[in-house]
Amino acid sequence: MAPLPSASLPWQQRFMLVMQTLQFAWFVGHFILLLSIVYYSLSYITFNSYSSRAQFSYRTAFLSAAVTYGIVVYKAYRAKARNGRGQAGLKELAGDENVQYLAMALVWLYSRQVPLALLPFGIYSVFHYASYVRQVVIPTIQPPQQITTPAGTPPPAKPQYKTSPIADKLGAFVRNNYDFSMYMVATLEVGLWIRLFLSVLIFQKNAWALTIIYTAFLRARYAQSSFVQKTVTHLRARVDNLLARQSIPPVARQVWEASKQGIARFCELTDFGRPAGSAGPGPKKAQ
After folding, report:
1. The dihedral formed by the CA atoms of 77, 78, 80 and 86, expressed in degrees to the nearest 10
2. Contact assessment for residue 89 and residue 188, using Cβ atoms and an 8 Å cutoff
3. Where are any strands of DSSP class E within the chain?
4. At what angle do helices 97-109 and 52-82 cross, to 10 degrees?
5. How far is it, in rounded angstroms, from Cα 278 to Cα 271?
6. Are 238 and 187 contacting, i.e. CB atoms less than 8 angstroms apart?
7. Model pLDDT for residues 120-152, shown as the tens digit of each residue
8. What is the structure's pLDDT at 22?
9. Hey, what long-range contacts does 156-165 have (CB within 8 A, 24 or more apart)?
10. Residue 129: other Cβ atoms inside 10 A
């Protein structure tokens, strides 16, 4: 994140300098995304999700998501180029979670409406928006004031600053809700795959293509995110417990076991980071 303008400047000038940064465009993108989701959600719960305005807000949300992730990807790889690391290879691009979300935002932008797909992007935007307000907007308008030590008290090794109470509350909100929200995102992403798979079973138009693309995305998320891994593990355990009941027909358990074996085989074949012949994929650090 770019350094804040000097506190000696008038706040209007400081804010104008902030508005000229690419990071501010990223912030505005998240703001528009959240507004679009709110408008579309109101249209959805009032059974008006296919009106022209609702469709516009739906597409605008994913366009904003594509812009915000595009800015992050552009800044990251521009910095690498400046450091002499050269152009990124296809494998490195595919393994970048920001590239993955950029690609999915573009897919959703040009696909049929799937309202559930908005929610993971919306949750991420809430945290990005809150963090930017806390770290940039508030300090730009109201710079932290240095705390003066009482007379006769030795000064601290480093200057101490008093931050805005609003910034402190936003920081506490992000810290206290981050893990829960990431689990929520992971649950929504897994639930979205189930939603798409059901659309294949009822022969919705273009359902196969969309499901295949999203499967590749979710496979990448599973490899990178411990939250997705734990969500899948929890879901598998719940289904195991459900099918263990005596009232469940044996054929259902057989289908479930075959499905688990097929998924495990698919994960093994698509674990490109694992050397051939190794024991299998292990949990990786969440990004």
Report:
1. 90
2. no
3. 145-146, 161-162
4. 150
5. 11
6. no
7. 999 999 999 999 999 999 988 888 776 666 655
8. 92
9. 163/139, 164/138, 164/139
10. 19
